[in-house]
């Protein structure tokens, strides 16, 4: 037990890496996925096709394979990423492909008349997205996306496979020294749960905030 | 003196695939005029209105508002306008939709101010004052802060009208704006339209309210099968003159009902 307390700062460092990986992945995938999603819905045919193919391919590959592909597959092509960024890139790609689908679903759920009403008052395309489509799409987008965020936190444990010391990796190392797997795994589970529980609580606040159809 | 029409539609044609929906339609509307289009289902009335603010691309002919071609660059071989240009042209026409199409996430007032601020470049305060003015004109000043979901159909449609006219369009387009309403709510919306007509708003509308069309319009256009089949004063059209069989057949459906 003493040893666990002793290892605590080390675990916290791992926790920090987990949070960092998750945050970067979530933020980057949101921006990239949203842009690609808009391209998938409103883009010209070549753009739509390209996004469709990319998204289907990426979602069809296990994340683990994707991580190894980026880490071991890119250097021969002249792009060498360190383990941290290779893992982040792969996870971001995977998440972005999901975001594309959420965006497509969310925008697709908005009646065509909304875009037309925006056109009719003379709004240009970007303003129609900004003031008419996105504020409505957010409602549909948030629930699956928040789910996906918690998945990203859980999925970030995969970075340990490339030797990045995240929470999962830190726990395994401490277990290697202390031979006390159960309490440590429980502690790890509790920490992951704490992160995800606060995320889903936050999401409920967000969903209420965007539920503009007052019930 | 030659009167230049505010809205001039010439030899307009439009197909959906192999379905030719508009076949060389000619129609013009002068400033201050109220023109109503009637005709059987599928005759192309909605498509015609949608072409006027380029919600629908047209294949041939021209639509000019105050001399400017709607969808294509001036003096060009049908080169499409840029997005910004097109938006500017669209702001010249107002559109009121059958299904209202209010922005559900915005209050009645915000529905009206959005275009005023983003398109007309009005300050927040100016936009607000203008919105209040028009909401009052349609009898909804007390509903400025309500969301569409908190309004009745008739109230929603009146907000829809306020949103369109607040932009001070040159022409107002109205497509069956009462046909999604319960019968007891139709009157309040038509009253607003009558008011606008009295104030000199130029309007091109489609309606199945024959009695209203007769009372409110300066001119009625009867469309059948993608063409203007008959055109004239309300009395002229309603009398079924010209020996136009299709018009006769169309009007006979309304005979006996209140007309
Ligand atoms: N987006 C579209 N794609 C394909 N065909 C269409 C489309 N919109 C309309 N049409 C067809 O064009 C024709 C004319 O339709 P339109 O809606 O203009 O008729 P309308 O006179 O407004 O009829 P109604 O009185 O029923 O509203 C119809 O045959 C319709 O099926
Ligand atoms: Mg129609």
TrEMBL record, chain A:
Belongs to the binding-protein-dependent transport system permease family. HisMQ subfamily. PANTHER family: L-CYSTINE TRANSPORT SYSTEM PERMEASE PROTEIN TCYL, MEMBRANE COMPONENT OF AMINO ACID ABC TRANSPORTER. CDD domains: TM_PBP2. Its main location: membrane. InterPro entries: AA_ABC_transptr_permease_3TM, ArtM/GltK/GlnP/TcyL/YhdX-like, MetI-like, MetI-like_sf. It is found in: Cell inner membrane; Cell membrane. Keywords: Amino-acid transport, Cell membrane, Membrane, Transmembrane, Transmembrane helix, Transport. The chain crosses the membrane at residues 15-42, 49-72, 182-199. This is Amino acid ABC transporter permease. NCBIfam families: HEQRo_perm_3TM. Residues 15-203 form the ABC transmembrane type-1 domain.
From TrEMBL, chain B:
It is found in: Cell membrane. Residues 7-250 form the ABC transporter domain. Its main location: membrane. The keyword Membrane applies. GO terms for molecular function: ATP binding. CDD domains: ABC_HisP_GlnQ (cd03262). Keywords: ATP-binding, Cell membrane, Membrane, Nucleotide-binding, Transport. Transmembrane segments: none annotated. It is a peripheral membrane protein. Belongs to the ABC transporter superfamily. This is Amino acid ABC transporter ATP-binding protein.
């Amino acid at each position: 037990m003493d040893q666990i307390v002793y290892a605590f700062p080390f675990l916290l460092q791992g926790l920090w890496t987990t949070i960092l990986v998750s945050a970067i992945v979530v933020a980057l995938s949101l921006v990239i996925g949203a842009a690609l999603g808009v391209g998938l819905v409103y883009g010209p045919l070549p753009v739509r096709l390209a996004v469709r193919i990319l998204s289907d391919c990426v979602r069809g590959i296990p994340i683990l394979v994707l991580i190894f592909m980026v880490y071991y597959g890119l250097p021969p092509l002249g792009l060498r990423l360190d383990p941290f960024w290779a893992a982040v890139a792969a996870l971001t790609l995977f998440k972005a492909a999901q975001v594309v689908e959420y965006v497509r679903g969310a925008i697709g759920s908005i009646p065509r008349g909304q875009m037309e009403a925006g056109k009719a008052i003379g709004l240009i395309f970007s303003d129609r997205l900004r003031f008419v489509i996105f504020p409505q799409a957010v409602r549909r987008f948030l629930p699956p996306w928040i789910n996906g965020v918690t998945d990203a936190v859980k999925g970030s444990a995969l970075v340990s496979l490339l030797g990045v010391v995240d929470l999962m990796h830190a726990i395994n190392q401490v277990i290697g020294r202390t031979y006390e797997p159960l309490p440590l795994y429980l502690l790890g589970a509790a920490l992951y749960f704490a992160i995800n529980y606060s995320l889903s609580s936050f999401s409920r606040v967000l969903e209420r905030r965007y539920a503009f159809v007052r019930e | 003196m030659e009167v230049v029409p505010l809205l001039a539609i010439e030899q307009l044609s439009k197909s959906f695939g192999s379905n030719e929906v508009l076949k060389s339609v000619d129609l013009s509307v002068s400033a201050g005029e109220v023109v109503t289009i009637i005709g059987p289902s599928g005759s192309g009335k909605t498509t015609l209105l949608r072409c006027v603010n380029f919600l629908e691309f047209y294949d041939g002919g021209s639509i000019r508002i105050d001399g400017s071609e709607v969808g294509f660059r001036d003096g060009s071989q049908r080169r499409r306008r840029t997005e910004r240009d097109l938006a500017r042209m669209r702001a010249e026409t107002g559109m009121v939709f059958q299904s209202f199409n209010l922005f559900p996430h915005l209050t009645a007032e915000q529905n009206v101010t959005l275009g005023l601020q983003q398109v007309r470049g009005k300050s927040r305060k100016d936009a607000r004052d203008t919105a209040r003015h028009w909401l009052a004109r349609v009898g909804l000043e007390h509903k400025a802060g309500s969301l569409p979901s908190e309004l009745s159909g008739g109230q929603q449609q009146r907000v829809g009208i306020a949103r369109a006219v607040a932009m001070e369009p040159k022409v107002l387009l109205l497509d069956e704006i009462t046909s999604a309403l319960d019968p007891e709510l139709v009157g309040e919306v038509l009253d607003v339209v009558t008011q606008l007509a009295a104030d000199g708003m130029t309007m091109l509308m489609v309606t199945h309210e024959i009695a209203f069309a007769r009372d409110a319009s300066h001119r009625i256009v009867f469309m059948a099968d993608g063409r203007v089949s008959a055109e004239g004063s309300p009395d002229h059209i309603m009398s079924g003159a010209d020996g136009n069989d299709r018009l006769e057949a169309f009007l006979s459906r309304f005979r006996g009902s209140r007309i």
